[in-house]
Design a protein that fits this description.
- The protein is of the alpha+beta class and 96 residues long.
- It has one domain: tt1808, chain A.
- 16% of the residues lie in helices and 39% in strands.
- The protein has one helix and eight strands; from the N terminus they run βββαβββββ.
- The chain has one helix at residues 31-45, and strands at residues 10-11, 14-15, 21-25, 49-54, 59-66, 69-76, 79-81, 89-91.
- The chain is globular.
């Protein structure tokens, strides 16, 4: 997710900068990449918030950057609210 204040980073070829929030949806073939490799890349890039959506387990793991590291804020099954973006709430019963 990129907020209006950084909309200039959205280009015809993709996002050229740091988004406010990245959401990864797990698939069997990408679990290791999403939980380890991509998380490390996003952390180093300075992305403030990162969600991992597990459609099989019906949960969202929320990670928020605290200084230079991500802190696991929780695993949510009913609703998840962005920690770094006001008024972004995902009601998970509408997703599953």
């Amino acid at each position: 997710m990129v907020l209006n204040e950084r909309s200039r980073i959205i280009t015809p070829t993709g996002i050229q900068g740091i988004p406010h929030l990245v959401v990864e949806i797990l698939a069997d073939s990408t679990i290791d990449n999403d939980r380890v490799l991509k998380q490390e890349l996003y952390e180093r890039a300075g992305i403030p918030e990162y969600w991992i959506v597990d459609p099989q387990e019906h949960k969202v793991d929320q990670f928020v950057r605290d200084a230079a590291r991500y802190v696991h804020r929780g695993s949510f099954e009913d609703r998840v609210e962005a920690a770094t973006i006001p008024n972004v709430i995902l009601e998970l019963d509408q997703v599953w």
